[in-house]
Amino acid sequence: MRKQAYRRIIPNFFTLLSMFFGFYSMILASNGRFRDAAWVIIIAAILDALDGLSARLLKSGSEFGVELDSLADVISFGAAPSFLIYHAVFEKFGIWGIIFASLMMLAGGFRLARFNSELTDYDKKSFSGLPIPSSAITLASFIFLSENAGLIREEFVAWSFPLVVGLSILMVSRIKYETLPKLSVEGVKDKPFHFLFLLAGLVTTIFWGAGMIFYFFIFVILFGIFRELYYKLSAPHSNSELSER
Fold it and tell me: What does the CA dihedral 186, 189, 193, 195 come to, rounded to 10 degrees?
């Protein structure tokens, strides 16, 4: 029993670190250090991945861990990105800026509550709706892209509105998104394309800058949307074939 309790310390430690960095990101954003705040959100996402990885390796998944992880996610990937985009873009729009900035936090909180209520297995193969860390990383990397691409202020603001609304809708949607492949030999064999894609994303980010993270996640988001559309459109055709038989 005590050994199992010790095993849970490591994943929970990563979760609490992720929560701390979400809080730290908000402090940086309030001081106008938007690029640093965006990087800290990505660090929080890495720690979030490490807590899940360590929980699987140590076989220490628990209901407490799931609840703690969700609380950390709301702060690091809901409140922190909303806080960042508010200070970077929406602050000058008054109450409308507050409403738009809060969308990601509200949608993320709703998505996590739905996830927890429907959770039946700690080792999920896919997610219903865009995962909240993916949404947060996409928004954070948009900060990098705006600097790397030399977007003027008006262009940055104009693109921020549809991006925030789109990410919020995708989080509460029922579009299926696959989980990251497991870091193991079995994981590579099971999802070789996913590993190659992750490697390609890492290489392009190293050589062409952090703005490439945005394109990487936009591709993942669009792939999920088009795959869902394909399944929806092909389903009636499959059903008609079965009825003819």
Answer: 40
The pTM (predicted TM-score) of the whole model is: 0.85
Q: How far is CA 83 from CA 25, 72, 78, in A?
A: 9, 15, 9
- Would residue 241 count as lying in a domain? no
* Pick from 167, 27, 51, 43: nearest CA to 104: 167
Q: What is the pLDDT of residues 136-184, one digit of tens each?
A: 999 999 998 887 655 567 788 888 999 999 999 999 999 988 776 665 5
Report which DSSP code applies to 223.
H
Domain count, the chain: 1
The answer to whether residue 117 is domain-embedded is yes
How far from chain centre, in Å, is Cα 113? 15
Pick from 80, 89, 52, 87: nearest CA to 137: 80
